[in-house]
Amino acid sequence: MQLTDISPAIALSPLDGRYQTQTSPLVEYLSEPALNRERIRVEVEWMILLANGYAANGDQSVLDGVEPLSDEERRYLRDIPEAFGKEGIAAHATYEKITHHDVKAVEYYIDDQLERAVETLGPDTQLPRLKTLVHFACTSEDINNLSIARCVKGAVEHVWLPAAQAIVDLLAAKAQEHRTLPMLSMTHGQPATPTTLGKELAVYVHRLGRQMIHIRAQEYLGKINGATGTFGAHVAARPQADWIAISREFVEGRMGLTWNPLTTQIESHDWQAELYGAISHTNRILHNLAVDIWMYISRGVFAQEPVKGATGSSTMPHKVNPIRFENAEANLELSCSLLDTLATTLVESRWQRDLTDSTTQRNIGSALGYSLLALNNLLGGLQAVHPNTHAIAAELDGNWEVLGEPIQTAMRAEELAGRPGMDHPYEQVKALMRGHAISQRDVERFIDSLPFDEQTARRLKELTPDSYVGLAAQLVNYTTR
């Protein structure tokens, strides 16, 4: 049997196959049917504005021969996208096979619904004769740019941002919980000045929080101004109408977007580049987090909670692999690749229009889908790890040489104050500690060998690797969320 003969069709992408349950919330906004549903919504709202007017002209019909729509007629029109389900998807697909044009197929689909209006509203409704009003003075991109902006806005605000914020919130809670838990730092993979686990997690809260602010403040631009952005057809048909005011009210008041007054045939997609750049940047911060947690697990700083019944290795029964973080890494890389391509290519269009953006934008769902999959993996992974306090304490106790920094810095202060015998502090500490295994007793002897005053010597001798954390616990309060 050929797999292509199986019905329903087998998914090619893992986002729609293996991982479908995790990425399915995006289907509501970024699938092809979701886009067509939004196109229908834009078309009918444009009809309603043209028929019932706008605030600046006293809510009078923009065009002659069109009576203001009744409440029932407006409700009927707005129900068309809401009822766009399995049958509607099939009907639209039938039209598209004929037209080879997805937006034209939407227009014909709406025409069908207008014909059927008499069944619901009775013979006096004017909707069947308003087919000409569908897509009036519009180019396909007028409908597409508004639909895509609304789809992306919905996906980001209702799916992606909550998933990302859940990770920030979990990290923030863990940062507070472990704000005073000392741990050994590693710079260049070598033991370095101790910190606290909470402070290190707070670094990620702060980094991610800044990106959340940028993404929440993102503008979503839209336009409805005709074939080359000049309102040429609009003015030819109805020169006395204030088409600029109509366009602005429709984009801002009806579509909930930011009006773009200056475009070619297409909305320039700069907002998309900004948004995808910000999400890609967030992905990279999350990638850094996934790698760090993976290495903390490997080092023993974090312990994993095994999932009952799960297999870590087909041959080594003892293993609990950090697969959630590995999966997150890979999916974040895929997401970044797509987002970076979208951000780079969408901002260019030959003269007033080419079609490269059309097929490119159909991958927005995949770009956000891989990121969402990574967010789900990261959240599950972070929920299943906890500090291994015994390993953390043992690591600190095995690296007394990290106290070389505070000792030589105190020596510098004493030298500057004019105390003799404190010259070349860095070199003295380096000779004692670099490349040697140092014990607490070695540190105390070195301090005793130097002409510190009694108070300073006592303060330095009271330092231990697990107490030398500076203001790390305080710094947790400075996160941006």
From TrEMBL:
Domain of life: Bacteria
EC identifiers of the protein: 4.3.2.2
GO process annotations (BP): IMP biosynthetic process
Keyword Lyase annotated: yes
InterPro entries per the UniProt record, alphabetical: Fumarase/histidase_N, Fumarate_lyase_CS, Fumarate_lyase_fam, Fumarate_lyase_N, L-Aspartase-like, PurB_bact, PurB_C
Adenylosuccinate lyase PurB C-terminal domain mapped to chain residues: 349-469
Gene Ontology molecular function, alphabetical: N6-(1,2-dicarboxyethyl)AMP AMP-lyase (fumarate-forming) activity
Pfam families per UniProt: ASL_C (PF08328), Lyase_1 (PF00206)
Segments forming domain Fumarate lyase N-terminal: 17-328
Pathway note: Purine metabolism; IMP biosynthesis via de novo pathway; 5-amino-1-(5-phospho-D-ribosyl)imidazole-4-carboxamide from 5-amino-1-(5-phospho-D-ribosyl)imidazole-4-carboxylate: step 2/2; Purine metabolism; AMP biosynthesis via de novo pathway; AMP from IMP: step 2/2
Keywords: Lyase, Purine biosynthesis
Function: Catalyzes two reactions in de novo purine nucleotide biosynthesis. Catalyzes the breakdown of 5-aminoimidazole- (N-succinylocarboxamide) ribotide (SAICAR or 2-[5-amino-1-(5-phospho-beta-D-ribosyl)imidazole-4-carboxamido]succinate) to 5-aminoimidazole-4-carboxamide ribotide (AICAR or 5-amino-1-(5-phospho-beta-D-ribosyl)imidazole-4-carboxamide) and fumarate, and of adenylosuccinate (ADS or N(6)-(1,2-dicarboxyethyl)-AMP) to adenosine monophosphate (AMP) and fumarate.
Protein name: Adenylosuccinate lyase
